[in-house]
Amino acid sequence: GENVEQHPSTLSVQEGDSAVIKCTYSDSASNYFPWYKQELGKRPQLIIDIRSNVGEKKDQRIAVTLNKTAKHFSLHITETQPEDSAVYFCAATYRGGYQKVTFGTGTKLQVIP
Amino acid sequence: NAGVMQNPRHLVRRRGQEARLRCSPMKGHSHVYWYRQLPEEGLKFMVYLQKENIIDESGMPKERFSAEFPKEGPSILRIQQVVRGDSAAYFCASSPPIGDTDGNTIYFGEGSWLTVV
Fold first, then answer.
1. Is the pLDDT of residue B13 over 50?
2. Residues linked to residue B44 through DSSP beta bridges, in sequence order
3. CB-based contact (8 Å) between A98 and chain B?
4. Is the dihedral of CA B42, A49, B109, B65 positive or negative?
5. Which of A43, A44, B8, B88 shows the greatest Cβ crowding within 10 Å of its Cβ?
6. What percent of chain B has pLDDT over 90?
7. CA distances, B24 to each of A95, A113, B12, B27 (Å)
């Protein structure tokens, strides 16, 4: 089955700096890669996603890149703000006969004012 | 368009009791997933269901846990004879049918926090 590894597990950055979170996946059949943000005590919320036919996608301060050959994808947050502090999860999704979503272990991001 | 609805939001059970967690998917969604999250940990897949069908239950403990998604009504995650280690947040998520234009995305409910005392 699919295995998703996520690094780092914790990340502290100064407000205004950039943050990068990296994930690798094992199943070359995975074709959709969403990122979720989870604040303390709340549900995971989709913040950005990328499909396997695209190499990069950007939405304001957030961008995601995908390298299918190397089987890794990354989340980039620029000009970080204190409200970006949360746990971020990457996921790899395989749409075969049915949909299977495998999550990474999460990155706790702390933005220091 | 209401999101994924879960209830109860918080549930306290004594050891040995049963816990029932309910999940109504988003309108138009036919796939339901259940995940468990221990404090300070990640999202652990439990089970994936469609109406009246369990598609993948590879993450479900073999004993005491069961899930269903009947033709009518919400999906239910049932935990029998709860133990302290069952204390966790249980998140339900739903997605559109396979074949829908953006059928990949799953959307989470607010979660049900189970505390076993």
1. yes
2. B36
3. yes
4. negative
5. A44
6. 78
7. 23, 39, 21, 9
Q: Where are the alpha helices (DSSP H) in B38-88?
A: none
Nearest to B37 by CA among A103, A30, A23: A103
Residues of A in contact with B106 (CB under 8 A): 34, 99, 101
Residue A32 has its nearest CB partner, among B58, B104, B107, at: B104
Q: What is the mean pLDDT of residues A57-76?
A: 96
Rounded-to-integer distance, Cα B32 and Cα B68, Å = 10
For chain A, the residue count is: 113
Contact A99 B42 (CB under 8 A): no
Q: And the tokens for B20? A: 């029932």
Nearest-by-CA chain B residue for A48: B105
C-alpha to C-alpha distances, A16 to A13, A80, B37, B48, nearest whole angstrom? 8, 5, 31, 40
